[in-house]
Amino acid sequence: MSVQVETKTVTRRALTAGGLAVAGAALLSRKAMAATEAQAGAAAASGPKPIDDSGLVVGDVKFQGFDQIIGGYRAYPVGKRNLPVIVCLPMIKGVNFPPHRDMVRRLAREGFYVIMPDLWIRKGDANAVPFPQLVNTLVAAPNIAEQQLDIDAAIAFAAKEGGNTKKLGMFGYDNGGRVIYRYMAMNPKVVAGVVYSSPVALNPLSTGATEAKPAPIELAPNYKGRLLGVYGDQEGSIKPAELDEMKAALAKAGDTKSQIVIYPGRHGFITNFDSTEESKKAWAQGVAWLKAHGLS
Predict the structure, then answer these.
(1) What is the rounded average pLDDT of the residues 38-45?
(2) Domain ranges across the chain
(3) Which pLDDT does position 141 carry in this prediction?
(4) In which band, very low, low, confident or very high, does the pLDDT at 138 lie, cut at 50, 70 and 90?
(5) What dotted CATH number matches 12-292?
(6) What is the average pLDDT across 112-123?
(7) Beta strand pairing status for 113-117 and 226-234?
């Protein structure tokens, strides 16, 4: 049985795109915010050396959204067309945060057309905003319909550049993963998604508010594509019991192929990329997941 969800209307398309409009505001507890901010700072200051763009077509792009021009960053292998399209949605620091661009390039090196839309463009450059302010303004009350339509627009742009949107996947971490959970519940054309360290349950915000339903756990009956959720064993605010509940919800919905897996590591450990054994294995598993589900 599908979950019925209420959403804020932006346009008629917002109610019909994919057949399910999902409401809710993403959230982070104080503990999760601190952990994520520390991970982001570590990735920027002392994380793995970013890969270069050799062999890739890379750059900032602009495309028409439902109400305005949307920015983004994309990469794909030189001379390749008809590649599977991966929408990359990292944490809330935005498209100008260097580790996020590095993630896009690394994915493109795996043989994908990868696009990272700027879901926060109406609020300015997220990389230039203090982290607590980002949480309060962008995570606590996002416009879910706008996000979904902006992702739709990014996918349409990828198709115009020669990407194969019949082979559509998603890849992200932290709050970006929560957006992926919501979008995959709305759009059955996404055949596979990979999320790292992304909340699955409702937790209190630092402001004391609580995210509106539904949580990703509640959306389990709506997923058509196969999900891989990758978590560290020291996630902080993401509790093991919540991950067990997510596994149970998927099983109850008859989804025997999606998986939740646990690695040694803290919140956001995937941003270590190839600098630790755990992050290397987790990255490789995510890429293999996409390819094993038709995105190759």
Answers:
(1) 45
(2) 12-292
(3) 66
(4) low
(5) 3.40.50.1820
(6) 92
(7) unpaired
